[in-house]
Design a protein that fits this description.
Number of helices: 4
Distance between the termini: 45 Å
Radius of gyration: 14 Å
Structural class: alpha+beta
Number of strands: 3
Largest sheet: 3 strands, mixed
Order of helices and strands: HEEHEHH
Helix content: 40-55%
Strand content: 15-25%
């Protein structure tokens, strides 16, 4: 594994550590909800599961969206695909999150907020 990929992987895991399950207030990394992270040429695929198959869907959507948005903060990442599994709303969560707009950069959102 090249140093660039190792650095990117570390940055991705740093971002994932910041995401907290809104229902119980614990990092998704501490909860070991991330099953797999694949990085290839600026594209990241993340497989994850939620705390239970019937975890409230609103929390599932929030976690999956936060995962996608946070990974886009890492330099060099052009595409992020999130795959939630083993949840009653997994298909809907994956569709909504993966079809959502790429988050704008911090400087762009600051400009929008000033208007």
């Amino acid at each position: 594994m090249s140093q660039d990929v190792q650095l990117t992987r570390r940055q991705i895991f740093d971002e994932l550590t910041k995401i907290v399950d809104p229902e119980i207030g614990v990092s998704i990394m501490e909860l070991e909800l991330i099953d797999k992270v694949d990085i290839e040429k600026g594209k990241v695929n993340i497989d994850l599961h939620l705390t239970s198959p019937f975890c409230p869907a609103v929390f599932g959507f929030k976690i999956a969206q936060d995962v996608r948005d946070n990974i886009f903060k890492v330099d060099g990442i052009e595409d992020v695909k999130v795959n939630v599994s083993n949840h009653f709303m997994a298909e809907a969560i994956n569709k909504q999150v993966n079809e959502s707009k790429k988050p704008s950069s911090t400087s762009e959102s600051t400009i929008d907020e000033e208007k």
